[in-house]
Amino acid sequence: MLKKTNLRYHEYYDMQTAYDRLYSASQNGNNFYQLMKMIGAEQNIRLAYRNIKTNKGSKTAGQDGRTIQDIWHLNDREIVQEVRKRLENYQPQPVRRVWIPKEGSNEKRPLGIPTIWDRMVQQSIRQVLEPICEAKFHPHSYGFRPNRSAHHAFSRVVSLANRGKCHYCVDIDIKGFFNHVHHGKLLKQLWQLGIRDKSLMKMISKVLKTEIEGEGVPQEGTPQGGIISPLLANVVLNELDWWVSSQWETYKPHRAVSIGFRAYAKKYTNLKAGFIVRYADDFKIMTKSYRESKRYYHAVVDFLQSRLGLTVNDKKSRVINLKKNASEFLGFKLKLVQQQQSKHGYVVKSSMNDHSLQKTKHLLKRRIKDIQHHPKPENVFRFNQTVRGIQNYYRYATTIYMDLTEVHYTLLQSMRARFRTCATTILFKDTSASFQKRARGISPWKKIYSIQQASLVPVTGVHHKNPRNFSQHVTNYTKEGRKKIHQDLRALPRGALAQVMNHYSKNQSIEYNDNRISKYVAQYGRCFVTGQPIGIDRIHCHHIQPKSRGGSDHYANLVIVDTFIHRLIHLSDTKKIQEYLRYVMLAPKHLKKLNELRQASGLEPIKPS
Predict the structure, then answer these.
(1) In whole angstroms, what separates CA 213 from the centre of its chain?
(2) 285, β-bridge pairs
(3) Of 57, 91, 97, 329, most Cβ neighbours within 10 A?
(4) Which of 586, 548, 587 minimizes the C-alpha distance to 567?
(5) For residues 32-46, b (16+ Cβ closer than 10 Å) or e, as one string?
């Protein structure tokens, strides 16, 4: 799922209205001819920097060895000029090839890491393409889209099986999807979505044909690791989504028919009752009968091969009766079991699949070894973070407690042996209240390990949570859709955010200007020292540790203060200090904060009068 904070960034850089217009126009079936202007807009490029720097991959070097840290010292004007220069005559640099382990096998899958400047270009393009494509994407496509997650896709499958009585599913595995996307077909699909800017189409073609280090120029596929690749992958499979959907879910009869059309259609037409749920290239088609599933299976295999040029893995593709066999989806295993109390006699029983269990055991064993070799609170924190990540993802499985109990018993012997000399045991009831709040269903008398007063989270400390379907009204690109995501920026004067964003320092780095906006929002437009709202003309951004003393433009080193407070932080003239103090009237707690900032700047604290 794309982070909800990304929606805030649209507001920070005043791009939300522009993206809303693209979304609305795309919904109305409009075509787009001059998108390069918006892609090269100053605010769009500054927003691209913001989105890239918050991405973990920004610290991974491309073929030129550079990361985000190598460009954040540049000011906004230099960043914008460099991106615009590349947009004028785009020539992407070679992509660095990296191989990472593939889940579920001993194989490795390829990643392509673009250079940092190519990532800036791709992000600028993606931000403009996304609202256009979002308006055209199928409602039950959940991968790599704003506000949607794997849990929404999982929930949809569970709902169709439980309430929709879809007890059969079609599982189809596409062989190396990302490596076999047909470039010409993809460009045609973008054209059909209304993207008619030929300059942009040429750029996307160049992105697709970017040279891969040591392998040459690819003739097919989208480079996994590229910022724009997930969006392009959704464009490719969007045609499949709507084709399957048109067979039943969104089928529109040529003329008005009676309410009983669906029942009539099942008996007397060739329509196939089925519903597609897709997450990236992993998808299921849920049906109510074996016959319909088989018809979908053969039809989809043919569609993928003839229309999209993609090959199906016959060994991993099949039709499954969920009453008799389990099906796997996004790390979960699903099977229908009899339950007399349920409305339809069957309910979905879900659990972690075998690969997820093995992966969890191996990962936690590695964390335990790290603690044994380096018994520090940092490694305990890393272990706890991993456990909570596993719990948060798999808690939607109905048998999550039993699954994690199996993991716990596997780790128990290893923990006893490896923690013998470096850990102590304490009762769960003796841990802090915040620690106990994060672990569910743990007995107060259960013994847990503690290393240097840092406690290890119990693996089984989680309760099952019912999955919830995605609300199709939620979107980043309408006022109504955004209301369901977050409240408007409260405590900020109307138009204040746009003014703060526009009145940036042209001599400071883009990192400074970007973090300045974040701090202003985080402090709700109030002074760090006094807590009072600051007028637009009096906003100052202060370095806690000055650059002359080794300070940086990082977020943690900046605070927003009133201009008079800023002067008090740096003044050394006693007479002038007293004049300003009479003007601002600081309470003792405010003076204490002010003195902390003065001392960090190497100045003497101000004594209360």
Answers:
(1) 28
(2) 170, 276
(3) 329
(4) 586
(5) beebbebbbbbbbbb
